[in-house]
Specification:
With 118 residues, this protein is mostly helical. The protein is built from seven helices and no strands.
């Protein structure tokens, strides 16, 4: 939801900057993945038996789905190109196993999103 706030406060033309915003979204997701990996591999985590077997592809898919879900629920003028791009990434054949794997996670997440007042 912060991304929606940033887009609105920047006053940017989403239609003209859809590719830029898509790249920003992907970088945010990659950064989140990297931060999780670093935190799970630090000394405190190792000393306490912390283990992380996150797969980058899974995190990218879940992050893309989260951005798509929130941005599709919020009114952003001209966001159709950005949403189409995110939807295309989610619908790629290589992501079909991930859709199936995270079906229950997404369903529970969507129930939580429904409770949020947009």
């Amino acid at each position: 939801m912060k991304m929606h706030h940033y887009i609105m406060s920047w006053g940017t033309d989403v239609t003209k900057n859809a590719k830029f915003l898509n790249n920003v979204i992907r970088q945010v997701i990659r950064y989140a993945y990297t931060a999780i990996r670093h935190k799970s591999c630090n000394k405190v985590a190792r000393d306490n038996g912390g283990v992380s077997d996150l797969q980058k592809r899974s995190v990218l898919w879940l992050g893309t789905h989260a951005f798509y879900t929130v941005l599709s629920k919020k009114p952003v003028y001209g966001a159709s190109m950005l949403l189409k791009s995110l939807q295309f990434e989610l619908s790629l054949a290589c992501n079909k196993p991930l859709r199936h794997q995270f079906k229950r996670v997404v369903k529970k997440g969507l129930e939580g999103v429904a409770a949020i007042d947009f």
